[in-house]
Amino acid sequence: MFDSLTLYNMYDIVADCSDNVPTRYLVNDACVLSGKPLVSASALRMEGQLTVYNYNGGPCYRCLYPAPPPPDTVTNCSDGGVLGVVPGIMGCLQALEVLKIASGQGSSCGQQLLMFDGEGSRFRSIRLRPKQAGCAVCGENPTVTQLQNYETFCGSAATDKCRRLNLLSKEQRITVQEYKSIVDSSTPHILLDVRPRVEVDICHLPFSLNIPLASIEDRKAEHIHLLKERIGELKQQLDAQAHVPVYVVCKQGNDSQKAVQILEKLSGQEVDCVSVKDICGGLMAWAQKIEPSFPQY
To answer: Quick check: 76 pLDDT over 80?
Structure first.
């Protein structure tokens, strides 16, 4: 972390191209304290966003997000993936806004959020709420008057590397080697892949059932029904009173842990009794330790 604003004072405009929450708060606060406009862009999967903070009386990042989100709810490009061309599009738009501000033409994104939908090839713009008088850094009585420890503030590391969540106990998880033994022994079970469909289309284990984490979180009826059907089919092979083993997998082993927590709450309620476990490290661990030819992305 920077212990002064010397670096920021050397420049007139700052562009934020980071992929983690602590850095976004750091760059925002530094720009407010040094009086610099902040051209910010982000991208995830096939979507992008662009806005200019701290510009012509407009809001700063903290005006819109006074407190950081819980670390386990944040998805970055390493975890969620991004189509390579989308950051390129957002980067070009970001450079355009920098040049417009530098040339004196001005930016129209000071109080607007430009949103790009790569799947539908559409742009749309929404108006942001104005600068907040109670903002901790740019408000009337700011409490943030110098840069702080943003990793402590956000509860997460200032890195673009894949995060490793640890939400479950040891008993709720198995290794890829243990899961391979289950597959080799032909033990009846359900393998639930909770990645978005676009990632499943890239690669997947052939015997997996795909229900995205978002659908599980929203309790989407059609997907819950699909899971119940698969559980019912398996129960016909097992003792009717037995718990159906369900193993949950994702890319890195983060979303699968969240899914396990939700499914455990649903067990015996919206779905029949199941025994749910997460596969540590996800499909990337499978590719590294079990099947080297399995695609990595």
So the answer is: no
| DSSP state, residue 259 | H
Residue type, 23: T
Q: Is 102 in contact with 60 (CB distance < 8 Å)?
A: no
pLDDT band at 1 (very low <50, low <70, confident <90, very high): very low
Tell me the C-alpha distance between 213 and 193, whole Å. 9
Q: Which of 77, 109, 138, 203 is catalytic?
A: 77
SS3 210: strand
* Three-state SS at 148: coil
Helices marked H in the chain: 6-9, 21-34, 61-64, 77-80, 85-102, 150-154, 176-184, 197-200, 213-217, 221-235, 255-266, 282-289
Domain that holds residue 184: 170-289
> Is residue 60 flagged as an active site residue?
no
Residues 143 and 14 in one domain: yes
pLDDT tops 90 at residue 148: no
- What pLDDT sits at residue 238? 76
pLDDT at residue 31 in the model: 95
- From the list 63, 154, 250, 280, the catalytic residue is 250
Q: CATH number, domain at 192? A: 3.40.250.10
Same domain, 277 and 227: yes
Tell me the C-alpha distance between 202 and 116, whole Å: 23
In a domain, 165, yes or no: no
Same domain, 40 and 148: yes
Specify the pTM.
0.58
| Averaged pLDDT, 61-88 | 78
